[in-house]
Amino acid sequence: MAFTFAAFCYMLALLLTAALIFFAIWHIIAFDELKTDYKNPIDQCNTLNPTVEKVKKIKRIKIALKLVLPEYLIHVFFCVMFFCAAEWLTLGLNMPLLAYHVWRYMSRPVMSGPGLYDPTTIMNADILAYCQKEGWCKLAFYLLSFFYYLYGMIYVLVSS
After folding, report:
1. The model's pTM
2. What's the CA gap between 137 and 116, in Å, rounded?
3. Which of 74, 69, 68, 67 is nearest to 149 (CA)?
4. Among 153, 133, 143, 69, CA closest to 105
5. Which has the least CB within 10 A, 36, 57, 123, 149?
6. What is the pLDDT of residues 74-112, one digit of tens each?
């Protein structure tokens, strides 16, 4: 059993996929709260979208990343790691979701700040249903990925 870079990539992917599963569950709960009117759209979009806050005491711009951008950045990090480790099957399995993330971010609504969710249109029944389906699909993908990464880690550790 040799500890290789591929094994390290799979171990790190396991840990970070657990965080992505948490993000997907948070996503599902957030849109369920909107659907059942527990939260208003402005507050919910503020928790989902990244915000740029000016801090007067420090006199610099503080970027507080919320939910969407960390998920995308973690997934890009996975793809770069698996590319460097030459794990082509794993990279190929992650590419459709990476392409979807790029498409989703490039076709986001025009707002004053970065983010995917516009408070004025988020309560539209079609958009709300789409966002809920997106959350469930991502949760399924991340759960399957978690077990695939576990298998890949064990396979790489045992075979080398």
Report:
1. 0.82
2. 17
3. 74
4. 69
5. 57
6. 999 989 999 999 999 999 999 999 999 889 888 877 765
